[in-house]
Automatic annotation (TrEMBL):
Residues 19-134 form the Transposase IS200-like domain. It comes from the Bacteria. The lineage of its organism: Bacteria, Pseudomonadati, Pseudomonadota, Gammaproteobacteria, Lysobacterales. SMART domains: Y1_Tnp (SM01321). InterPro entries: RAYT_transposase, Transposase_17, Transposase_17_sf. It comes from Rhodanobacter lycopersici. Pfam families: Y1_Tnp. This is Transposase.
């Protein structure tokens, strides 16, 4: 399948820089927004991959949520990491693992991803709550704790930390 190029796509990369220790809010969507992860087994497989610290190399994933057709995460880059390599590794590992389970018609992920570097004045816990509340905003769960496909570094603080 030929890759369709968006002439403005290069502008999305202008100014994108990868800084070790910087936390980024990352989002990527499935190809044609197919709800691949409504399948419980595929969602569980993806969650196991996402939770594997080796996936993040020198960095770490602080928080993530897997939705039926997209993924959000807060990722802190490690020394020597850059956003493009981290997302390429993320998408590649999940694509291979999912591809071992089912035959997908086309790629698993859309090309590209959205990133936002958190500024110093942005509250990391608030950004994490925003990420894990995504299923509530989408009408898929009444409470973030009702959605099974997420994780966050502060879960030990109890459910009140999510409010």
């Amino acid at each position: 399948m030929p890759r369709i190029c968006n002439p403005a796509q290069h502008r999305l990369r202008v100014g994108r820089c990868s800084l070790p220790g910087q936390v980024y809010l990352l989002t990527t969507v499935t190809h044609q927004r197919r709800p691949v992860f409504v399948d419980t087994e595929l969602a569980r497989l993806a969650a196991r991959c996402i939770g594997d610290a080796g996936l993040w190399a020198a960095g770490r994933c602080l928080c993530w949520v897997l939705m039926p057709d997209h993924w959000h995460g807060l990722v802190e880059l490690g020394e020597g990491d850059d956003l493009a390599r981290v997302m390429q590794r993320f998408k590649g590992v999940l694509s291979r693992r999912i591809g071992q389970q089912i035959r997908l018609a086309g790629p698993l992920w859309m090309h590209g991803y959205h990133d936002h570097a958190l500024r110093r004045d942005e509250d990391l816990a608030a950004a994490a709550r925003y990420v894990i509340a995504n299923p509530v905003r989408a009408g898929l769960a009444a409470c973030p704790l009702d959605w099974p496909y997420w994780d966050a570094w502060f879960v030990g603080d109890g459910p009140d930390c999510l409010l």
